[in-house]
Amino acid sequence: MSGLKLFHTTNSGVTEVMPRLAEVEADVQDLIEAYMETMLGVRFLASEYVIDCVDGGRIDSLGLDENGAPTVVEYKRGTAAGVINQGLYYMSWLMAHKDAFRNLVRDRLGASAASQVLWSAPRLICVAGDFTRYDAHAVREHRRSIDLVRYTYFGNEHIGLETVASVTGQSAATKRARRRAAGPPPARRQDRAMAELAGVIDEALLGLGDGVTRVQRKQYAAYQRLRNFACVCLPQQTKLLVYLKADPKAVDLIPGFTRDVTGLGHHGTGDLEVQLRTERDLERAQDLFRLSYAAA
Questions:
Q1: How many other C-beta atoms are found inside a 10 Å radius of the C-beta of residue 278?
Q2: Which residues of 117-150 are buried (b: 16+ CB within 10 A; e: fewer)?
Q3: pLDDT for 178 beyond 70
Q4: Pick from 222, 34, 29: which is nearest to 118 by CA?
Q5: φ, ψ dihedrals at 285, nearest 5°
Q6: Which residues pair with 49 in a beta bridge?
Q7: CA pair distance 150, 159, nearest whole angstrom
Q8: Contact predicate 65/15, CB 8 Å
Q9: How far apart are CA 126 and CA 182, in angstroms?
Q10: Per-residue DSSP letters for 42-111?
Q11: Where's the DUF5655 domain (predicted)?
């Protein structure tokens, strides 16, 4: 169980709201499936999806994350005995039956979403009442993207989600995708400057805290905890565009540096655009990075 304590404050004092587990596993599954995009950053596709193989089985939830990665979500009411291996089994089936998943995405989200599935970075999200230290160690031994998420109910009105471990798979396909996105070594001085700035931004975002992972798409790199909190687009001639999940309305916007792009089309996710031209701009953006990280 999480060490987090929650207190209800009144004029007469404070009362601790005691943590608890769900009555049954289905309570957690039903709640998360109903609000999956808000809670996990994953668009819900199917519940109790029956897989067609000799051993059979049902995937608790199937979805598509913010970056287009196919996502398996498995739940356990208490400590997650066997849930990681069970989820990996379903992921292996998924990767061997891509057409079935594409058809599911096409039926639920349309042909455009089905054509942009990111097969280089499939994800497994395990949601459970608790995990052991061996579970956290085990995810680091696999070449898959795995998130261990601990849930805690507080009273009857609140639920907390805490990322216990998060690992991005380093498959050969993922490495090839990153090399393609990086392109050939820049030749011009300005190109080299932008490439160096991109490297410093990468270090800054990955260094914000434990469990930050990076997912490379063709047009942007997404930085996530459980959900995306920053997306860095490919360098332009004189600047880099970073899109953050921080609320633009909570930020003092500065022309030429920050912009509210709510409702405007762009690569990646997030409604606060930050324009970075130099490392000095990066220093100015650090508080915004941290604000977005905390919001993810």
A1: 11
A2: bbbbbbbbbbbbbbbeeebeebbeeeebbbbbbb
A3: no
A4: 222
A5: -85, -10
A6: 59
A7: 10
A8: no
A9: 31
A10: EEEEEEEEEP-SSS--EEEEEEEETTS-EEEEEEEEEE-TTHHHHHHHHHHHHHH-HHHHHHHHHHHH-H
A11: 193-293
135 touches 150 (CB < 8 A): no
The two three-digit tokens of residue 201, written as one number:
């931004």
What whole-number distance in Å separates Cα of residue 276 and Cα of residue 283? 10
* C-alpha count within 13 angstroms, C-beta hemisphere, residue 268: 27
pLDDT tens string 244-293? 999 999 999 999 999 999 999 899 999 999 999 999 999 999 999 999 99
Helix (H) or strand (E) holding 159: strand 158-167
**Is the pLDDT reported for residue 179 higher than 70?**
no
| Cα 83 from chain centre | 19
- Regarding beta strands 123-130 and 70-79, do their DSSP bridges make them parallel or antiparallel, or are they unpaired? parallel
Q: Measured between alpha carbons, how far is 139 from 66 in angstroms, rounded to an integer?
A: 22
Q: Dump pLDDT digits (tens) for 74-120.
A: 999 999 778 999 999 999 999 999 999 999 999 999 999 999 999 99
What token pair was written down for 269? Answer: 């996710």
- Distance between CA atoms of residues 195 and 181, nearest Å: 12
3-state SS, residue 216 = strand
SS3 15: strand
Q: Which amino acid is at 74?
A: E
Closest CA to 84 of 132, 52, 12: 132
Q: Tell the residue number behind the tokens 């633009």, with chain if given.
A: 248
Amino acid sitting at position 26: A
**Token pair of 151, please?**
């849930």
* Residues whose CB is less than 8 angstroms from the CB of residue 124 and which lie 6 or more positions away in sequence, other chains included: 71, 72, 73, 74, 84, 87, 88, 90, 91, 144, 145, 146, 147
Residues found in the chain: 296
Write down the pLDDT at residue 172: 43
